[in-house]
């Protein structure tokens, strides 16, 4: 068989399960978000366009992990099928060894590396920023206050609202408590027996009409404490001002994994100048570079594992890909904990998964190329067949 034909054949075999895995893994990761978006549209009255945009902004963060997972699944499923159908033996008989099968895997690993790098460096920060901006525009457009019963709602940060009971339409409130810390000179707590909301989208404000309550105020630098009782009181929230404050808080408090490389480096510089611990931030910075290289590691591990002779076919590839990625994630968490404890450096902590699995992949590649048996994989395959037979017998008895 001509080399180009082999390459095209293997590429096709890998791409099909990769595409299926990409769809399945994306659905699994986003299914909870789908329910949330549906709730926003049906129960909260959020326009469908806003809900779809919020949903799309979340996708890049999931694809960072989903794309390498799907690539690994594609390699293992394709080669496991070849092995189960004795095609690997046919290739070996024709003089096509393990190393000759590597060019298509390397090509797809490069594509996966480049795409994952794009996601980490550009798409994830873009998605995070646009997600927050869409929420801010939505709040300004609808002029609604989304409060939940018996929960301290800190939608606007320095303004915390607690409501004992909310009417089905969300307009009438019972048992209201508002903690207002927006003024650094004066802290105020407002308690009211009942109230109702009057939104004004055009003026970008929200009025809370409160009844039968009291205002408790205390100056920050003094011990002066005042209490004012009222029969009726109007508390106004100017949405545009609160949205701008929330934007500033979001830029400062954004999670490191959602930041761009530049923003994360600036945060590390500020924290270093302030004398704070920057180990977790350094781990995240180096992990942004380590994640894309996982594509090459998965290719290195997947190639020798996939050609092992099994009886389980594609299902064996699915199980292997799950355990390998689980091991990768466990090693990542293990590295972060070691770095936080000061045992290893942050760069080493971020690269622990790649170094460990890379060494394992190199060992398996050499061992498989020499056609030495890997006993643990044979045991795993037998265990899979045992479970499959038990399941078949169980279904026949039902």
Notes on the protein architecture:
There is one protein chain. By secondary structure, the chain is α+β, with helices and mostly antiparallel strands. The chain contains ten helices and five strands; from the N terminus they run ααααβββββαααααα. The protein has two domains: 3-139 and 273-397, no CATH class; 159-241, no CATH class. The protein has a five-stranded antiparallel β-sheet with strand order 1-2-3-4-5. The model has no long low-confidence stretch (mean pLDDT 78).
Task: Looking at this protein, list some descriptive labels.
398 residues; alpha+beta; 5-stranded antiparallel sheet; 10 helices; 5 strands
Could you tell me the mean pLDDT?
Answer: 78
Q: Tell me the strand percentage band.
A: 15-25%
Radius of gyration, in Å, reads: 28 Å
Q: Based on helices, strands and strand pairing, what is the structural class?
A: alpha+beta
Contiguous helical run count: 10
Shape: elongated
What is the spatial order of strands in the main beta sheet?
A: 1-2-3-4-5
Number of domains: 2
Question: How many beta-strand runs?
Answer: 5
Q: Give the biggest sheet.
A: 5 strands, antiparallel
| Termini Cα gap | 48 Å
**SSE arrangement, N to C:** HHHHEEEEEHHHHHH
Helix proportion range = 55-70%
Uncertain runs with pLDDT below 50, 5 residues or more? none
């Amino acid at each position: 068989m001509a080399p180009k034909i082999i390459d095209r054949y293997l590429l096709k075999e890998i791409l099909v399960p990769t595409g299926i895995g990409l769809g399945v893994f994306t659905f699994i990761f986003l299914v909870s978000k789908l329910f949330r978006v549906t709730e926003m549209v049906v129960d909260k009255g959020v326009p469908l366009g806003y809900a779809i945009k919020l949903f799309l902004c979340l996708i890049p963060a999931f694809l960072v992990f989903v794309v390498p997972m799907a690539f690994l699944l594609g390699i293992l499923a394709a080669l496991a099928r070849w092995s189960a159908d004795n095609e690997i033996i046919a290739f070996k008989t024709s003089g096509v060894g393990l190393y000759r099968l590597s060019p298509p895997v390397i090509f797809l690993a490069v594509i996966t590396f480049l795409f994952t790098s794009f996601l980490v460096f550009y798409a994830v920060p873009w998605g995070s920023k646009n997600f927050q901006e869409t929420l801010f525009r939505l709040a300004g457009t609808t002029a609604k206050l989304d409060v939940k019963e018996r929960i301290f709602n800190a939608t606007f940060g320095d303004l915390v609202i607690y409501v004992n009971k909310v009417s089905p339409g969300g307009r009438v409130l019972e048992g209201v408590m508002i903690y207002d810390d927006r003024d650094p000179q004066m802290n105020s707590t407002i308690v009211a027996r009942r109230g109702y909301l009057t939104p004004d989208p055009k003026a970008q404000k929200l009025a809370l009409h409160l009844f039968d309550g009291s205002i408790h105020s205390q100056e920050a630098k003094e011990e002066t404490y005042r209490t004012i009782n009222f029969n009726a009181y109007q508390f106004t929230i100017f949405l545009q001002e609160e949205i701008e404050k929330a934007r500033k808080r979001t830029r400062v408090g954004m999670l490191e994994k959602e930041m761009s490389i530049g923003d994360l480096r600036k945060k590390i510089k500020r924290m270093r100048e302030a004398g704070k611990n920057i180990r977790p931030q350094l781990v995240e910075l180096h992990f942004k570079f380590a994640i894309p290289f996982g594509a090459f590691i998965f290719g290195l591990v997947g190639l020798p594992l996939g050609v092992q002779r099994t009886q389980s076919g594609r299902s064996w590839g699915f199980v292997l890909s799950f355990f390998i990625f689980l091991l990768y994630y466990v090693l990542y968490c293990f590295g972060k904990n070691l770095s936080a404890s000061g045992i290893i450096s942050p760069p080493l902590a971020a690269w622990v998964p790649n170094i460990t699995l890379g060494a394992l992949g190199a060992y398996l590649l050499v061992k498989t190329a020499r056609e030495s048996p890997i006993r643990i994989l044979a045991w795993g395959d037998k265990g899979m067949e045992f479970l499959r037979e038990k399941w078949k017998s169980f279904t026949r008895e039902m």
